[in-house]
């Protein structure tokens, strides 16, 4: 699955699953033969961060751009200068994982001043089973507010409706109904529906993006 734009930005409220999707999207681009860099500018969540898989992904040829050393776990609005080097490098496409909530949007706003916006494609990830997006009104409010705060045009919505390992086709189809309402109100099209870990999902109304779970919960530890 591919979309136009050199720079592909994934944003959404905390717990929406945007980091998992950004990781899988970067893998998908890499497997199609493209050179990919993934920039982790998530300053919100201390647990689910692309940077924690730096070594694993770089073995697959995907460059992870994130603060290193003592700054790797800091909840600070740090944008590594490397990001702009890859923006200017014609050989790479960049996937950007942005922190959720207003703080993440402010960081993206700062970054957007130096990005070629005409070459950016921004995805807003929604999971209606998370408290911040549990109603249509809440979801619309967050989509509009974070778009304004980030100074970025949101090009697509992403249905990531799930309840973890208990997810069935029922929850995914509910998410498609839910996101269709958001799409009609905001006039933002839906890019795809996410299906994780081989859930038995027959066919919905949107393109399907099957992903695997890379990020572990804090209580699961690391292998």
Total domain count:
1
**CATH homologous superfamily assignment:** P-loop containing nucleotide triphosphate hydrolases
> Could you report the average pLDDT, rounded to the nearest whole number?
84
Q: Rough shape?
A: globular
Structural class call reads alpha/beta
Tell me the name of the CATH class. Answer: Alpha Beta
Beta-strand proportion: 15-25%
Uncertain spans, ≥5 residues at pLDDT below 50?
A: none
Alpha-carbon distance between the two ends = 29 Å
Number of strands: 8
Determine the number of helices (DSSP H or I, runs of at least 4 residues): 6
Main sheet overview: 8 strands, parallel
InterPro entries: CobQ/CobB/MinD/ParA_Nub-bd_dom, P-loop_NTPase
Protein name: CobQ/CobB/MinD/ParA nucleotide binding domain-containing protein
Domain CobQ/CobB/MinD/ParA nucleotide binding: 15-135
Pfam families: CbiA
Task: Explain the overall architecture.
The protein has one domain (7-211): Rossmann fold (3-Layer(aba) Sandwich), CATH 3.40.50. It is built from six helices and eight strands. The protein has an eight-stranded parallel sheet, with helices on both faces. With 223 residues, it is of the alpha/beta class. Helix 4 (101-112) packs parallel to helix 5.
């Amino acid at each position: 699955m591919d979309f136009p734009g050199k720079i592909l930005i994934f944003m959404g409220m905390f717990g929406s699953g945007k980091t998992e999707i950004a990781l899988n999207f970067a893998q998908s681009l890499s497997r199609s033969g493209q050179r990919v860099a993934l920039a982790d500018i998530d300053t919100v969540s201390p647990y689910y961060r692309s940077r924690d898989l730096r070594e694993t992904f770089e073995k697959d040829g995907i460059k992870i751009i994130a603060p290193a050393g003592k700054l790797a776990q800091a909840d600070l609005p740090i944008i590594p200068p490397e990001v702009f080097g890859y923006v200017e490098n014609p050989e790479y496409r960049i996937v950007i994982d942005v922190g959720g909530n207003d703080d993440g949007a402010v960081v993206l706003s700062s970054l957007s001043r130096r990005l070629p916006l005409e070459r950016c494609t921004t995805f807003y990830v929604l999971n209606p089973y998370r408290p911040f997006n549990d109603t249509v009104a809440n979801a619309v409010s967050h989509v509009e507010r974070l778009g304004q705060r980030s100074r970025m045009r949101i090009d697509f919505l992403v249905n990531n409706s799930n309840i973890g390992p208990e997810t069935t086709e029922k929850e995914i189809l509910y998410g498609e109904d839910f996101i269709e309402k958001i799409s009609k109100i905001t006039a933002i099209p839906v890019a795809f529906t996410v299906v994780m870990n081989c859930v038995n999902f027959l066919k919905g109304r949107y393109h399907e993006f099957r992903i695997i779970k890379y990020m572990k919960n804090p209580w699961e530890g690391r292998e």
